Amino acid sequence: MREISYKNYLVAGIITLLVFITGLMLGLTTSDKRVSSSEQQITQHRLELDSLQLQYLYIDQQHDKSNCGAISLALDENVKKLAILGDKIETYSEDINFNEPEFNVLKREYTLAQIRYWLVTKKAKQICSTDAVSVLYFYSNEADCFGCSTQSRILTHLKGQFKDKLLVFSLDSSFLQEPLVPILRQTYNITQFPSIVIEDEAFSGLVEEDRLSSELCKKYQVKPEGC
Amino acid sequence: MILTISTVLIWFSYLLSLYLLTFWLLTLLDKGIRDNPKELKEIRSVTIAIPSYNEEKNIRSTIQSALDLDYQHDQLEIIVINDGSIDRTEAVAKEVIQENPTRNIVLISQPNRGKGSALNVALKQAKGELFTCLDADSFVEKSALKQMVPHFDNDSIGVVLPLMKVKDPKGLLQKVQWCEYLLNLFYKSIMGKIDCVHVAPGPFSVFRKKALVEVNGFAEKNLTEDFEVTLKLQEKNYRLIQLLGPQVYTIAPNTLKGFYKQRNRWYKGTMQNLFSYKRLIFNKKYGDFGMLQLPRIFISGFLAVALLILIGYKFLLKPYSKWVYDMLFVRFDIIYFFKDWAANFMKNFALIDLNFTNLFFAFVSISISLLIIKLSFYYTREKYQKYGIVTIPAYMLLYGIMASFVWLGVFLEMVFKRNQKW
Fold first, then answer.
1. Is the pLDDT of residue B229 over 90?
2. Interface confidence (ipTM) of the complex
3. What's the confidence (pLDDT) of residue A114?
4. What is the per-residue pLDDT for A143?
5. Which of B81, B332, B341, B372 is deepest in the core (most CB within 10 A)?
6. Which class in CATH covers the domain with range A7-130?
7. What is the second-level CATH architecture of the domain A132-227?
8. pLDDT at B419
9. How does pLDDT run across A163-184, given as a tens digit for each residue?
10. What does the pLDDT read at residue B2?
């Protein structure tokens, strides 16, 4: 009978386990910080939203549109920041330590913030007559949505072209934890992904850049560069 | 689903590698590595077999390398087996014999039957107590035998192996293999301490002839007769010792095609022999060799292929093909997207965005790898930058991928039952 290094098998196993646990603990610590940072940013967005809503209300009451430009720029900046936060939350969710309930809460808050901003944008258009077009973009994170990443890229590219004249609000339609998403889908009769709603007009399936650009251009009173 | 499988597979592979590396380092700490040089007290007769097939260019230097060995001439027998060469191998061998009339050199010619057969013919004819083989593309250090023979001081010692290095590596491929050999031999020397040497490679592994005869010599229709004979010797509980003192040099393939062909034969032969000797796997009777070494070899091929396919698909093929596809819809405006990404990164990057779990595991892996490279170079008496600063990084980046592609080829050929010639 030949020798078996039981002791070294055991010690190697313990060391491997310790390394594994240390790695997981590091990740868990980071994960907690990520959650609190994301929550903090969402709270900040809520405040910004309240402030924007009040600002528009104030403008509406005073019939003084001189501040509309500055507020619109702030709105655009906040929408961009929120989109980045959304991307981060999605990336965090791929991490082994990021647990699903926390992710779902954050994602729900993020989705609600998107919808709130979208509603504020609509209101802003009425009050300030801003010449910005809002796009509600329905995508799905499910593997079967082949065109979603393509549509996202096209929208990002057009955002670079139209800048603050284009506001994009993305909604993950496969995220069913927030009941408002299915309601919006029903409102615009969204049955496939990707789909986009330009102002109140819905387009199903992938809308290529030239067509999307031309549809957006139709909505502007003063044609921006690129139209 | 593929996401789940790939994640589990990556974690499993990582933890298994970490476990094995830790075990390896523990064995090193436990058993040490250096075999103190032993003095040659008892001269033992040695037969050197030189199997050759169409080696007219190398055969002279190979025989000369054997003749130049610092060992008592009357205890050294050289058997050249011309295995059906159709070039001038036989004529050149005869010339060398005529030029060295006082030396014991025998030339045997036979129709081409392969290396295993050539070695068995030499084994039958051999008069030495010890038996070794020198391939026509290998060169041995003069003092090798003097350093190796004293280690046969115990009847249980079946094979003593020299430190095999790549001869004068020129291109990047040979340099990567040079690095690989150093690490591999260092690894084998540690595994030898717990009787886990899994292969006694062709170039100048010195066998106890009695042990070889006991296991009926070399398999003649085997892709890796050196692995097969090792399994037989391990089964008979003979011990194999990997030394890091005596050196033998071998010529490594210098083209990817050559590399693929050589490794394909090695890996395929390994799998075939593992299937033939599956009775040894997870068999406590064979100690660590059965419980650790053979299962490790068996599983590493499967893991290499699975990781190559899944990582290649998940992290390379799928995202990048989709990226290219998506970019086609925005007129491939890379500059805009790069600027957009850079601006976002500069503005929004936070430390907590980093994946500390993966970073920690990467740090641990790289640290252990660097430690092992350092130890390997130290014990094999080599310098890190001997063949340029890119050699070690190139080895770390490329070798695993290259080996995985060979494994993939092996599995595909095994699935489609393609036969391989030696």
1. yes
2. 0.88
3. 92
4. 74
5. B81
6. mainly alpha
7. 3-Layer(aba) Sandwich (3.40)
8. 58
9. 989 999 999 988 888 899 999 9
10. 43
Q: Give the strand order in the sheet containing A195-198.
A: A166-172, A133-139, A195-198, A201-204
> Smallest Cα–Cα separation from A206: which of A109, A139, A112?
A139
Chain B residues with CB-CB distance to A under 8 A? 7, 15, 18-20, 22-23, 26-27, 30, 194-195, 237, 284-292, 322, 325-327, 329-331, 333, 336-337, 340, 344, 348, 350, 352-357, 360-361, 364
Predicted local distance difference test score (pLDDT) of residue B422: 44
CA angle B158, B163, B164 (to 5 degrees): 110
Contacts of B196 (CB under 8 A, 6+ apart): B288, B289, B292, B293
Closest approach of chain B CAs to the CA of A182, in angstroms?
26
Q: What percent of chain A has a predicted confidence (pLDDT) above 90?
A: 53
Q: How far is B337 from chain A (nearest CA, A)?
A: 8
Strands (E), B17-120: 46-52, 76-83, 105-110
Domain with CATH 3.40.30.10 in chain A: 132-227
Mutate to test the interface with A, among B24, B286, B293, B330 (most CBs of A within 10 A): B330
Of the candidates B23, B30, B352, the beta carbon closest to that of A34 is on B352
- Report whether B135 contacts B99 (CB < 8 A): no
Chain A residue set in contact with B, beta carbons under 8 Å: 1-5, 8-9, 11-13, 15-16, 19-20, 22-24, 26-27, 29-30, 33-34, 37, 84, 88, 91, 95-97, 149-150, 152-154, 156-157, 160, 208-209
How many Å lie between the alpha carbon of B298 and the closest alpha carbon of chain A?
A: 18
Q: Pick the residue from chain B with its C-alpha nearest to A83.
A: B344
Looking at residues A118-133, what average pLDDT do you find? 88
pTM: 0.86
What percent of chain B has a predicted confidence (pLDDT) above 90?
A: 81
Any idea what the Cα angle at residue B26 is, between residues B24 and B32, rounded to 5°?
Answer: 90
Contact B377, B384 (CB under 8 A): yes
CB atoms B330 and A157 under 8 Å: yes
A12 closest CB neighbour out of B22, B344, B355: B22
Q: Specify the pLDDT at position A92.
A: 86
Question: For position B311, what pLDDT does the model report?
Answer: 87
**pLDDT classification of A66: cutoffs 50, 70, 90:** confident
Residue of B nearest to A142 (CA): B1
- Residue B118 to residue B134: CA distance in whole angstroms: 12
Q: How confident is the model at residue A101 (pLDDT cuts 50, 70, 90)?
A: confident
Residues of chain A with CATH 1.20.58.60: 7-130
What pLDDT, on the 0 to 100 scale, is given for residue A70?
86
CA distances from A82 to A78, B220, B346 (A): 6, 70, 16
Stronger pLDDT, B7 or B227, i.e. the higher one = B227
Q: State phi, psi for A172 to the nearest 5 degrees.
A: -80, 105
Find the helix or strand (DSSP H, E) in which B242 lies. Answer: strand B239-250
Q: Strands of B46-52's sheet, edge to edge?
A: B105-110, B76-83, B46-52, B130-133, B206-208, B157-166, B239-250, B138-140
Considering only CB atoms, B286 lies closest to which of A2, A26, A88, namely A2
